Amino acid sequence: MSDAAPILALDRVTKRFGGLTAVSGVSFRVEAREILGIIGPNGAGKTTLFNVISGYYRPESGRIHFAGHDVTGQPPHAICRLGLTRTFQLVKPFGNLSVIDNVMIGALTRLPTVSAARLDAERVVETCGLAAHAAGHARTLPIGLRKRLEVARALATRPRLLLLDEVMAGLNPTELAGMIELIRRLHADGLTLIVIEHIMAAMMRLAQRIVVLHHGETIAEGAPAAITQDRRVVDAYLGEEFVLAQA
Ligand SMILES: Nc1ncnc2c1ncn2[C@@H]1O[C@H](COP(=O)(O)OP(=O)(O)OP(=O)(O)O)[C@@H](O)[C@H]1O
Ligand SMILES: [Mg+2]
């Protein structure tokens, strides 16, 4: 880890739903320009953690610092304005709006005029490989393009840190390769990312470091190669088949 201040720091963050502790004392840091991966079984608390970081849920305890600000408990729009945006695991574009209009909504969060937002949205749509579909209704897009639209909508808010929640789920191999390429390009252009993903092959190609959650707790953190060898991670999530396939 570098000496520079991290772009994001979580300090013992806990989020409960009634008697269930969905996120339990989670601490980690993300350096600027890093891609951090988050993995773990279904129900491990990954999406809940994103909801807490991005301000959709207030944690019961712990602190979250982003870009020099204590953002703990701040609302999503305030955190977004500071440069932290997330995508949703269940994609929810405005189906009756065109692709370009969906992206414009993101751009309008920081640009004062519709014409400026449209120009900016056109650039983002191009970046995300959606130019041919710009005028089409969001609801008519196949899943692969809807996932790209979800990324485009988030990108239009011009984040410094982007949280991606399973944007590769359900994609065919060609779409998957395209999404990995897009994420790598965004990273090369200076974006910092946290990526939740079940597709380990994709995770291994993207993440520089991985945090593993299990029952809301961090059970391992480290380089992808070390994580896949970690006994607790194999037992809780990856399974012996994964280890044998890697060998
Ligand atoms: N709004 C909520 N109210 C009550 N319980 C919730 C809520 N959101 C999540 N949970 C519970 O918190 C736990 C963590 O859920 P979460 O969605 O964060 O898991 P996840 O790691 O994202 O799983 P997946 O890989 O299936 O997406 C689960 O037991 C879930 O049922
Ligand atoms: Mg989830």
Brief description of this entry?
By secondary structure, this protein is of the alpha/beta class. Helix content is 38%, strand content 24%. Helix 6 links the parallel strand 7 and strand 8 (192-196).
Overview of this protein structure:
The protein has 247 residues and is an alpha/beta fold. The protein has two domains: 1-83 and 161-247, P-loop containing nucleotide triphosphate hydrolases (Rossmann fold); 91-158. The chain is 38% helix and 24% strand. The protein has nine helices and ten strands. It has helices at residues 46-53, 76-82, 99-107, 114-127, 143-155, 173-188, 200-206, 224-227, 231-246; strands at residues 8-17, 20-30, 35-39, 61-66, 69-70, 84-86, 161-165, 192-196, 209-214, 217-222. The strands form two sheets. Strands 6-7-8-3-9-10 form a six-stranded mixed β-sheet, with helices on both faces. A hairpin with a 2-residue loop joins strand 1 (8-17) and strand 2. Helix 3 (99-107) crosses helix 4 (114-127), helix 3 (99-107) runs parallel beside helix 5 and helix 4 packs across helix 5. The longest helix has 16 residues, at 173-188. The two termini are 29 Å apart. The model has no long low-confidence stretch (mean pLDDT 94). The structure holds adenosine-5'-triphosphate and magnesium ion. Magnesium ion is lined by residues 46-47, 89.
CATH superfamily of the largest domain: P-loop containing nucleotide triphosphate hydrolases
The main β sheet shows up as: 6 strands, mixed
Beta-strand content bin: 15-25%
CATH class of the largest domain: Alpha Beta
Helix content, binned percent: 25-40%
